[in-house]
Amino acid sequence: MNNIPFFLCLCFFALAVEAFAQTKLPTRLGTANPIDGRFACLAIPNTKLKPGEKIQVVLPDRPQKVKTAVIESKEVKSCSSEMDIASRISFYRIKISNDRDINYGIGVIGVRRIKVKNGVARSDINNDGKLEYFRSCTSREGFHSTVWTGKPLKGKCIWHTYYYLGYDTEPDCKKKEYQY
């Protein structure tokens, strides 16, 4: 009986840590895309990134790849070619290794190393002891990018963004990828 209050405190602490990790997650994920072959842009709800800070960019198309990038500068206005930008987004000019290789990526801040195995990127990005996975799919005029705790479409979607292309594409998204 004496262990019950300790157990309850431990459970509450674990839930609080998970909730804190989930609230910090959006400031650690953003979209990255090249701009006119000159540089790449990171759009992210985080105002505190500094020049020289390293990030990883997951290229979500299969086989997935991970590129290293460095923040070069914060931009005063949007540098993203993404048309559907949410409020409270900050923009950063970034330098990506071999940036000509990318179309679009998911920028990840503050994670040790994202590993690719069998063409699939994975990492515990929210420090909850479970692996997160990256995915993208097309809708009618753009694509959805998602991050999942557990395997995509089977686990829990913890991050989503929509990138409007402005032209028709062949949809291949599953309902679960844009409704959560």
Give the termini distance in whole angstroms: 40 Å
SSE topology string: HEEEEEEEEEEE
Radius of gyration, rounded?
Answer: 18 Å
Strand-residue proportion: 35-45%
The number of helical segments is 1
The biggest sheet amounts to: 6 strands, antiparallel, barrel
Overall 3D form: globular
Low-confidence stretches: 1-23
Instruction: Work out the helicity level.
Output: 10-25%
Number of strands: 11
Average predicted local confidence, pLDDT? 80
The largest beta-sheet arranges its strands as 1-2-5-4-3-6
- Protein structure class: mainly beta
Explain this structure to me?
It is a single chain. By secondary structure, the chain is mainly beta. Helix content is 12%, strand content 41%. The strands form 2 sheets. It has a 6-stranded antiparallel β-barrel. Strand 8 and strand 9 form a beta hairpin. The termini are far apart. The N terminus is likely disordered.
